[in-house]
Write a structure and sequence with these properties.
The protein is mainly alpha-helical and about 180 residues long. It has one domain. Helix content is about 75%, strand content about 5%. The chain has a two-stranded antiparallel sheet. The longest helix has about 35 residues. The chain is elongated, with a radius of gyration of 20 Å. The C terminus is likely disordered.
Length: about 180
């Protein structure tokens, strides 16, 4: 059985990230940074959880809710609580980690798998929210949510493509990166 060290492939000249991928990574970086801000200042009621001690941070959230009356944030439901807890405990730490990695222009398959997982997760959860907004005819709010639907979908497709391409590169790479291993 042939085993390929993917880390050696990425650190070698076999796999070079095309310029368009670097531009996409820059877009993803800004997406994650902006989504971190949106999560902390709009989506999550952090100031309410802290007892209103940071009321200056809740101004944007109050403005958004009073202006647009977003039913996803205003009307409680158990499934929404699950999504918000996911955002707090999974997405917020992930946004910080992935932003730092993308800023360093990391070419790491672990990063790509993580972004792929995030993309699928964010797309499916936002898809559910979009259906509720559609049912309530909240077109303006749907336009706010749309980038959080489209960009994660594109991320998932892009990262899946990168992983497939890297597997093909690893499979057809030089024999110096392939070692034989008996079963």
């Amino acid at each position: 059985m042939k085993v390929v060290s993917l880390r050696r492939i990425y650190s070698s000249e076999i796999y070079k990230l095309p310029t368009t991928r670097l531009h996409m990574d820059t877009l993803y970086y800004y997406y994650f940074v902006s989504h971190l801000a949106a999560a902390l200042f709009v989506d999550l009621p952090i100031t309410e959880w802290l007892g209103g001690s940071l009321s200056c941070l809740s101004g944007l959230r109050r403005f958004y809710l009073s202006t647009y009356e977003d039913p996803i944030l205003l009307i409680p439901a158990p499934w929404k609580t699950a999504l918000f807890s996911s955002e707090l405990f999974f997405q917020v730490p992930f946004f910080i980690w992935v932003s730092l990695r993308l800023r360093k222009k990391a070419r790491d398959p672990v990063l790509w798998v993580a972004i792929l997982i995030y993309g699928v997760h964010a797309f499916t959860t936002t898809w559910c929210c979009m259906f509720e907004l559609f049912a309530e005819k909240k077109w303006m709010i749907m336009s706010f949510y749309f980038p959080y639907l489209a960009i994660p979908l594109w991320m998932a497709i892009d990262m899946g493509g990168r992983l497939v391409k890297s597997c093909h590169a690893a499979k057809s790479g030089p024999s110096s990166t392939i070692t034989s291993k008996s079963d």
